[in-house]
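Extended Data, panel c. Modelled sequence:
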Amino acid sequence: MANVTWAVDPMHSEVQFKVKHLMITTVTGYFSNYNVVAESEDEQFSGARNIVFTADVNSISTNNEQRDTHLKSPDFFDADNHSEIRFVGKTYENVGGNDFKLHGDLTVRDITKPVTVQVEYGGTVVDPYGQTKAGFTVTGKISRKEFGLTWNAVTEAGSVVVSDEIRLNAEIQLVKQA
């Protein structure tokens, strides 16, 4: 069977993360410059493989310039030395209906760890312009400390400023390539 190659539609996709601040509220961040490519056996995304996600650390935005600058600093992502986050999917496992687990390797700050994310396959359609598109909702959690993002501070009351757990959320629309 012929391979189907897919590329991200950035106009209809978004990549975000969420982290607890002072353990009482959640801060949301986005990457505005990222890429996703994949292959499948057919347009229904059977046999998905060669799934690669990359994000430009310098495109991070939390809607606060001071915080974004801190996130790009050596305290967190160290963007000058580690400008890319990379996830390489290895196994796309159907766990029932349109629900999948995507197992792969996540690299942040040149530290690579196995990560599993949940994927909800939204389906495949042909848009009004004749393009075949597949949609996915991706969620997961990681420990930032496992990837060398260890900066933190403690409040006078003893609470940490930034939680270790990072929640990952992405809405991804892929376009079939000719």
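The helical segments are 65-72. This feature is highlighted in the accompanying rendering.
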